Amino acid sequence: MPGIDRIEIHHDEANPASGAIARRLGFTEMERVQVPEGPVAPSETGIDVIWRLQTRPSPSA
């Protein structure tokens, strides 16, 4: 897609299944950050794991 240079996935660190999917799809874990509003569900830790996949520039770019 023109103008898209990356795709990100954010999930709570208490959800390792989401991380496994991101890893399997070729995403790279970039960082873990404390969510300002804290956990919003009882099973969450309030720490987001951020995964990134860099996309290739389009031929017209």
3D architecture notes:
A 3-stranded antiparallel β-sheet has the order 1-3-2, covered by helices on one side. The chain has one domain (6-54). Helices cover 15% and strands 36% of the residues. The model has no long low-confidence stretch (mean pLDDT 91). The chain contains 1 helix and 3 strands. The termini are close together. The protein is an alpha+beta fold and 61 residues long. The protein has one helix at residues 16-24; strands at 6-12, 28-34, 47-54. InterPro entries: Acyl_CoA_acyltransferase (IPR016181).
Per-chain topology:
Elements: E1 6-12, H1 16-24, E2 28-34, E3 47-54
Antiparallel strand pairs: 1-3, 2-3
InterPro entries: Acyl_CoA_acyltransferase (IPR016181)
Protein name: N-acetyltransferase domain-containing protein
Organism: Streptomyces nigrescens
